[in-house]
Amino acid sequence: MTMRRLSRDEVHGLATRTLQAVGYGPRHVQAIADMLTTCQMDDCQSHGLFRLFMCAETTRTGRVDPQADPALTLDDSAVVRADAGGAISLLAVQAAMPHLVDRAKRFGVAALAVTRCYHFSALWPEVEQLTGHGLSALSMTPSHAWVAPAGGTRGALGTNPISFGWPRNGDPFVFDFATSAFARGEIELYRRENKPLPEGVALDANGQPTTDPEAAMDGAMCTFGSYKGSALSLMVELMAGPLIGDLTSLDSMAYAEGRPEAPYHGQILLAFDPDRLSGGAVADSDARAERLFAEIGGQGARLPSERRYAARARNAARGYVEISETLYQDLLALSS
Amino acid sequence: MTMRRLSRDEVHGLATRTLQAVGYGPRHVQAIADMLTTCQMDDCQSHGLFRLFMCAETTRTGRVDPQADPALTLDDSAVVRADAGGAISLLAVQAAMPHLVDRAKRFGVAALAVTRCYHFSALWPEVEQLTGHGLSALSMTPSHAWVAPAGGTRGALGTNPISFGWPRNGDPFVFDFATSAFARGEIELYRRENKPLPEGVALDANGQPTTDPEAAMDGAMCTFGSYKGSALSLMVELMAGPLIGDLTSLDSMAYAEGRPEAPYHGQILLAFDPDRLSGGAVADSDARAERLFAEIGGQGARLPSERRYAARARNAARGYVEISETLYQDLLALSS
Fold first, then answer.
1. What residues of A act catalytically?
2. Which of B107, B152, B299 sits opposite A152 (nearest CB)?
3. DSSP classification of residue A279
4. CATH 3.30.1370.60 is held by the domain B3-180+223-291+303-311+318-334
5. Which of A57, A279, B163, B186 has the highest CB neighbour number within 10 Å of its CB?
């Protein structure tokens, strides 16, 4: 495969020009291009430049508002509400983030409810950003009802990612994973390569377990971790949906009416101030957390995100990332 | 097996007399007896009267303080801190609960950090109690380092339960599960019955996968859901340990120095006000959540806790629970 090298500026520029060309307003262009660049520089291919196709598709269907300014509701509580007004989520999160940080430091714990947004992005960059303020953070979002509950027969839950972060000197502890057993894109890859799926990953259209990726695309995915994973996925639905006054994955899928746009729903971000919560014992707490990380590393086990941080360091040192020439040409075509 | 019928009052009385006999102060007796009764009335055998043995053992080792009054730290933030002072956790939670509810309603989100407590109880009764105030709730606690991280070879994580609740008319949505693949008690049951464990549940003392329950007791348990479950377990360690200025499961195990007492560490409870978080759209939110529950039930899948609620209804209607005569006699012996 022929690869093309792109510097950070070239990645950001390509994203910017494409987003401008498909109609996003300047503030959205900046917020989305920043996010795609952050992901691409970590070799997070699925949430990097590749997502420009979805950004373009979502404007072509004509339902996303590519210009809407987010409307923040700020009061004297620990809750910040950011109404994205039918736009992509990222600008709303960006606009609300300083207020979330402020309230987490003031109240010890705070919540950001982002509502009425089209959502396609990884959660870890926002969680990592909060750790940069010395905060621990938790974020969740639903998607479309592609995932069957444990013991069920058809989609009712989203892929429902959970992302958590803990501040450290240097790279923070961060994980971000779907509560589905597989990502939907992974099943597509198996289909393209004509490979059978592992057991326990998917159901066919009749609700029966299947290893046929074609049948799985017409059926439903399973959650990871059986009943426990299914319960967690339902928690994501409730906390990032009804709790913040927004849609579940079932609602979101119904709303899309089969259009190939990004799912439309909400996102919750929680921020925790270790200083307030520990009663000022942050130094002791950091030492305890570091002993645990050291024990895990000492066993030869990896912490989540280690591979991503390694890619980040390598790409920063050499000054470029690589994407396939085919992807690059397809992206150029998007903006022409 | 000969069974004995006990009314709610008899369950509570038996717990009360036993706890008094082994030296707990009156406020602790009431808080612990209430919790054990709540669990026993739901046929939650592992966390009901059976736990009196651990309560007795933990006082015999002489390190729990069976009299200490909890010390609350209340300020103008959304964080309530309850220092249990080396006692069992339950009285501290009970004393702090009204303040947690107050702050959740005032700030939209609030946290209770319970610290320096011996902990042996299920998390769902406290989470369910918060749903009774119209709040959503999340609780976590570490334990002892019996569980290996994914890719690791020995215990570094606790069984680390997560409990979540969502208020409904009637029985709330509540789950409470360990992030270990098996509960430690389950492995003991397999050992007693000389049955091989399922694959993927445990490691032996050399860090190799094993299905031998004897070898597993000398080794470590695995987390549920592989790398994802392991990441969640680590989140529980951080949020219910260092974040609130208390011990990890590694620290707790070191602190116990091999004594057979309950683990000593902290617990975090988060409470969320759907009214504040949804911007006053609770009626819509409830309807969305109920549509999702109905879809899951309509597929023939169970919601967590359904079996427990069925036991509760049956025991309430007939006015008694059943425990084995052997357990009953052993419990009587505890207080004589």
1. 46-47, 186
2. B299
3. T
4. yes
5. B163
